[in-house]
Specification:
This protein is an alpha+beta fold. It has one domain: Thiol Ester Dehydrase, Chain A (Roll), CATH 3.10.129.10. It contains four helices and five strands; from the N terminus they run βααααββββ. The longest helix has 16 residues.
Length: 170
């Protein structure tokens, strides 16, 4: 279950947020999700069945001293928080991808994680005046300030209809 850390810094709510609302330099935090061992094992059994994620005996004797979550589980948690709180529900069009994906610390049972998102860049499209590209540094942060996953996300977002440049303009 997630809950917001408090009101967002966006002036517009997620269901009325457009490209124009993403200002470079703005930083937002959302969360929390509590992670338990059963969830870690269940995810790993289906998507990443390595012993470090699913076999307690193996994991206890391994380099992390216990079960750790798959990096892809961390990615899924980060995406859930992005979709619930950060990405517009009316203007999000697609994502051309992510860069700089890093797993910095293990995701562990008992972690409480939240999302930190920093707008790095927001630039209108030169070829399509109805949209722009927003680049965001994303971090999933645990209760100790550790970062189980970080990445740079790119998202195409529609420009608020009343602010779009007329077709054929630069």
């Amino acid at each position: 279950m997630t809950r917001s850390l408090g009101p967002t810094d966006f002036a517009a709510p997620v269901d009325d947020r457009w490209f124009d609302d993403y200002a470079p330099g703005a930083r937002y935090s959302y969360g929390y999700i509590d992670v338990d061992e059963e969830e870690i094992v269940r995810f790993a059994e289906e998507f990443d069945p390595q012993p470090i994620h699913v076999d307690r005996g193996f994991a206890d004797a391994g380099p992390f001293g216990g079960i750790i979550g798959s990096g892809w589980h961390s990615a899924g948690l980060a995406m859930r928080l992005l979709a619930e709180h950060y990405l517009s529900r009316v203007a999000s069009l697609a994502s051309p991808g992510v860069d700089e994906l890093r797993w910095r610390v293990p995701l562990r049972p008992g972690d409480r994680v939240h999302l930190r998102a920093t707008v790095v860049e927001a630039r209108p499209s030169r070829s399509k005046p109805d949209r722009g590209l927003v680049v965001t540094d994303v971090e999933l942060v645990n209760q100790d300030g550790g970062v189980p996953i970080s990445f740079r996300a790119m998202n195409l977002l529609a420009i608020r209809p009343d602010r779009r440049a007329p077709s054929g303009s630069a």
